[in-house]
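May I ask for an example protein's residues together with how it folds?

___
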Amino acid sequence: MDDDEEERDFSKSIVFGFFEQAENTFKNMDASLDNKDLAQLSSLGHFLKGSSATLGLTKVKDSCEKIQHFGASKDETGTTDVNDKELCLERIKKTMGPLKRDYNEAEIILKRFYHDA
């Protein structure tokens, strides 16, 4: 990341903004799962996919992309239609565990990097 302390402060603000954004998105995803709102889950997956990709959090991005596809009633690659809402919701539920675990691991590492652990 940044060698310069001033630049590190800049990237730190971006990273910590992402943490806040991700936590809010997870809450919205949980609520959307409870409401069985596939379209909203797809939108939230897409939203978090972009910001996690920007930070290079590949595992988080990959899980978000799967949620985006499942929410759009597709398979995990987004190429095949899945006409079973309950199956798509179940796949999202199964993806949320690894997503949150990978996010938590990245958060720990990044906080350690920024001496904020």
Observations:
- The CA atoms of residues 69 and 78 lie 5 Å apart.
- The helical segments are 5-34, 38-54, 58-71, 85-113.
- The radius of gyration is 15 Å.
- The chain has a mean pLDDT of 94.
